[in-house]
Amino acid sequence: MTVVTVGVHIADILARPVEHIPEGQDTVLVDQIRLTAAGAAAGTAVDLVKLGNDVVTMGAIGDDELGDFLLMVLAKRGVDVSCLARRAGEQTAASILPIRPDGGRPSFHVPGANLSVTYADLDAGVLRGARAIHLGGMDVTFGLGDPAFFALLDEVRAAGTIIAMDLLSEMPDLLGMARAFLPHVDYVLPNESQALLMTGAADIATAAAALLSDGPRGVLVTLGEEGSLVVTESGSERVPALKTDVADTTGCGDAYCAGFLTGLLHGQDVLTAARWGTAAAARVATGLGSDAGITDLESTLRMLT
Ligand SMILES: Nc1ncnc2c1ncn2[C@@H]1O[C@H](COP(=O)(O)OP(=O)(O)OP(=O)(O)O)[C@@H](O)[C@H]1O
Ligand SMILES: [Mg+2]
To answer: Has residue 64 been placed in a domain?
Structure first.
């Protein structure tokens, strides 16, 4: 089943555990350091492949070594990178994440080439052939907020393609602008602070209702270890997170999206698909990096039994 991920591609550099930044020039030994393909499009693409989907990813990276790394590692993981644009002289987006002992993930980030993505970078023919399209980080790739792209999304949606959207930043202005996508998508999956910042609401129930009124069929607000809130026209349900040994929660939201879409593509209802997402997210939390933990669909779904 072909899924196209569109949007944010980031090289993540992660270390764990980190309790504080050392004083002066001190060096602190850590257990593990990793470099991964991450971000709301690239990270989700890797998880989608592991869950059994054929995946093409679209967006932009720089012509630097981090871009070489992303191309190499995405291809190695089985993601089709032939539609990824390379920008001469631009930096590939990257994050440095010192992971806390409890799995928390503060970060330092350069948005780089993600900021320059436009509709001209996308392959409309490939998008028209997809069974599902995942828009990852439309607040950061804000150039995609283009009537031509919206028209294409409306066209493929009318033909039965499922369209999901995730966000990346915590910036109110960018998140507010990303609301323009909502009439053109089926499901939106913000985390708690993104849902609140997108709407200005004081609580998640009000935020989810406001996002639903913009036009999608469902709003799934992820709440970290508290699980998620699934809101559709037929009501609202809490899906608890699964208990697991947490190493690093980076990419839990991306994994949730990947599991959710995989569930929908297997004909599951929204709530069951949300449970598939929850299982995928719990797997990712067990290892360092947004690509850790998940191996395949079968072992992921075993978490639910
Ligand atoms: N500590 C945890 N233990 C178990 N499951 C977790 C934990 N943290 C997160 N999850 C699962 O992951 C899902 C998504 O997490 P979260 O709300 O943190 O996403 P996010 O902030 O979008 O993450 P990211 O953008 O880094 O991918 C939650 O709904 C939950 O099911
Ligand atoms: Mg997220």
So the answer is: yes
Residues in the chain, pLDDT under 70:
1
- Name every protein residue with a CB atom under 6 angstroms from any ligand 1 atom: 103, 191, 222-225, 227-228, 241-242, 244, 246, 249-254, 256, 278, 281-282, 285
112-171, pLDDT tens digit by residue?
A: 999 999 999 999 999 999 999 999 999 999 999 999 999 999 999 999 999 999 999 999
Which pLDDT score is estimated for 261? 98
- The residue type found at 258 is A
Predicted confidence at residue 104, as pLDDT, reads: 86
Q: How many domains does the chain have?
A: 1
Which residue range is the domain that position 64 belongs to? Answer: 2-17+32-302
Output the residue whose Cα is nearest ligand 1's atom 17: 224
Instruction: Provide the residues around ligand 2 (an ion) whose CB is within 5 A.
Output: 191, 253
Ligand 1 centroid to Cα of residue 127, in Å, is 28
Question: What separation in Å is there between the alpha carbon of 25 and the centre of ligand 1?
Answer: 34
Confirm whether 75 is domain-assigned: yes
* Within a domain: 151: yes
Question: For residue 22, is it within any domain?
Answer: no
CATH for 115? 3.40.1190.20
